[in-house]
Write a structure and sequence with these properties.
Elements: E1 8-9, H1 14-24, E2 28-32, E3 38-43, H2 44-56, H3 62-70, H4 72-75, H5 80-83, H6 97-107, E4 111-115, E5 121-126, H7 127-134, H8 138-153, E6 161-166, E7 169-177, H9 181-189, E8 196-204
Parallel strand pairs: 1-2, 7-8
Antiparallel strand pairs: 2-3, 4-5, 6-7
């Protein structure tokens, strides 16, 4: 996910929301209350209804009045809280990439707010982020294991363990402290795109 996420308070005016979306090059933004709880999402579509009515009502004649009636409910909103779509569709940090992708696809949303267990905003994930994660290749998985797990967490020498990845299945070979081996394998297994770990490690004391 991307953190921090751009959000707007519920009392943000229509024009301020429009400027924020334009400035940040966003199609939508979470709407939050004073405690950062996500209460909805305001999108370009929400703003367009308001903007369209503002333009139409300046025109004389029955056509403008007809369109105004169709958009009347949305046009009455003046702030993010009254223009937004709610309840917001959100995901949680612990959700799998596959589950988040399914939520985005089912809801036809480009961006999903990520909230903690109290529904407070902690970040945002986009369809592009999810797609990249889902199609990540074996070389990228191996690079994460070698850099983040072996060197970063366990401070092992680059040639201490050989890592091969094929179709999401990781094979590890080499000699490692017997006390470290179980945790190391489990850390690799917990990586999002790893399907299985084949442990060929030799323990040393």
């Amino acid at each position: 996910m991307r953190s921090p996420a751009v959000s707007v308070p519920g009392d943000t005016t229509f024009l301020e929301v429009a400027r924020t979306l334009a400035h940040e090059h966003l199609s939508a933004a979470p709407v939050v209350d004073a405690e950062a709880h996500v209460i909805g999402v305001v999108s370009e579509s929400d703003l367009l209804a308001k903007a369209a009515v503002m333009a139409i009502t300046r025109r004389p004649g029955p056509l403008g009045k007809l369109k105004d009636r169709r958009l009347h409910e949305k046009s009455r909103g003046e702030t993010a809280a009254t223009l937004m779509t709610y309840p917001a569709v959100t995901v949680h940090p612990a959700d799998t990439v596959a589950d988040a992708a399914w939520t985005a696809a089912r809801s036809r949303l480009k961006r999903l707010p990520v909230t903690d267990y109290r529904d407070r905003l902690v970040g945002v994930v986009t369809r592009a982020d999810l797609l990249r994660s889902l199609v990540r290749d074996d070389a990228e998985i191996r690079e994460e294991i070698e850099s983040r797990i072996l060197r970063g967490e366990y401070h092992l020498a680059p040639d201490a363990i050989t890592v091969t990845v094929e179709g999401g299945v990781v094979t590890v070979e080499g000699r490692v402290d017997v006390a470290l081996a179980p945790g190391l394998v489990e850390s690799i297994r917990e990586i999002e795109d790893v399907d299985d770990v084949v442990d060929h490690l030799t323990g040393v004391t």
